[in-house]
Amino acid sequence: MKANRILLPLAALAVLASCEESTNPELGKLRTERDSLTTLISEAQARVLEIDGEIAVLDSTLSYTTVSTHFVEAGNFEHFFNVYGAVEADRNITLFAESAGMIERISVSEGQTVRQGQPLLNVDDDIIRNNIAEVQTSLELATDLFEKQERLWNQNIGSEVQYLEAKNRKEGLETRLATLNSQLAMSNLKAPFSGVVDEIFAKEGEYAAPGMPLIRLVNMSQVYVSADVPESYINRVATGTPVTMYFRSIGDTVDASIIQVGQFINPDNRTFKIKVGITGGADTYKPNMMASLRIRDYQADSTVILPSHLVQQDQEGRSYVYIMKDVEGDLATVQRNYIRLGLSYEGVTEVQSGLSTNDQVVDRGARSVQSDERVRIVGEE
Fold first, then answer.
1. For the chain, how many structural domains are there in total?
2. pTM
3. Are residues 190 and 117 in the same domain?
4. Residues 99, 102, 107, 113, CA torsion sign
5. Radius of gyration of the chain (CA)
6. Are residues 115 and 183 both part of a single domain?
7. 63 lies in a domain?
8. Can you tell me whether residue 252 is helix, strand or coil?
């Protein structure tokens, strides 16, 4: 009874559609064409499936993703960073005038080698010398009077005040004489160390005032390169750290080491100072010459290393590689393996955990495979 109730409406619809086609021939034509095309599409899809099956039987290589592999190795790993520095010398100074007066004589010339204590320049000191002569005369008299007063005092003759006045006058003149001699010494500029007169700023006949630059003296027997290093490396460099320096202006490369690490962080640029020693080179390296420093801040022996391009990351930022499992001939199953990385340098990365030597890592084709997929190995890198 229920089936009859369903069939009756369908029959009614069929009769209605027949009536529409009889009244509209074009509609019937389109529906017939649609049915024919639908049949053709179904037959074509079925044939495509048959052809894919036949191809899979005849060409089995299309059944697997082809990959190449890389065997994990252990090796020495080094990490470097680069900064720029400049040549400096502790004995590279500018000598300034300490007293006022006319420059009477310049005893050296630019480029001349001088020894420690050698006179370089003289300021007119006639007034000072006259004052010294005057004080010396007064000091001689004061000394004689003091000695006589002292003898009388020792014999309990005279007052203590007379004795103390004589003593004070003598000592005051001695102090003044010492001061004048110091001023005389300042008027005669001498080399504080042996070196080369690099530049003379003053001229004979000019008036020198205290603080006026006179001569630059340089001794290049001990030079070094000073550089600013970002504070992030403060715990990664130390005295003795190897450094390779390249002086582009002269095309020279020098292997050296750090001789001093600064203990102060510059708040303006967040860097600290290092000094790199240079052995010899007095005639080669000049103050303020620029150098590129390649500093080794990390080294590990016999550690697991891997080409950096093999490492991938998931959406959570975890690093992983695909390794080969269940290897049978040239077929294997890939498996995602999460790893913990160290530093990377020049295309090589240190792997701290997650891989062992001789593990096979997917190289070419790593971006196309999925975990647990069966693949065909076509080469080793």
1. 4
2. 0.57
3. yes
4. positive
5. 48
6. yes
7. no
8. strand
Residue 187 structure tokens: 């008027």
Burial of 28 (0-12, 13-18, 19+ CB in 10 A): middle
Predicted confidence (pLDDT) per residue in 144-183, tens digit? 888 888 887 788 877 888 888 888 888 888 888 888 777 7
Cα distance between residue 143 and residue 34, in whole Å: 139
Contact 311, 321 (CB under 8 A): yes
Q: Where are the alpha helices (DSSP H) in the chain?
A: 2-23, 25-58, 126-154, 160-187
User: Nearest 5°: CA angle at 309, between 308 and 311?
Assistant: 75
d(C-alpha 270, C-alpha 98), whole Å: 37
CATH for 183: 2.40.50.100
Q: d(Cα 191, Cα 113) in Å, to the nearest integer?
A: 10
Range of the domain at 129: 99-214
pLDDT digits (tens, 9 = 90+) for 22-73: 567 787 788 888 888 888 888 887 787 677 556 655 555 556 888 999 999 9
Tell me, yes or no, whether 108 and 193 share the same domain: yes
Q: Are residues 229 and 241 in the same domain?
A: yes
CATH number at residue 277: 2.40.30.170
- Look at residue 64 and tell me if it is in a domain: no
* DSSP state, residue 204: T
User: At which of 299, 332, 359 does a domain end?
Assistant: 299
Same domain for 344 and 355: yes
Q: How many other C-beta atoms are found inside a 10 Å radius of the C-beta of residue 38? A: 10
**For 83-89, what is the mean pLDDT?**
92
Q: What is the pLDDT of residue 237?
A: 92
Same domain? 305 vs 287:
no
**C-beta of residue 297 within 8 angstroms of C-beta of residue 255:** no
What's the pLDDT band for 2 if we cut at 50, 70, 90?
very low
**DSSP readout, 260-307?**
EE----BTTTTEEEEEEEE-S-TTT--TT-EEEEEEEEEEEEEEEEEE
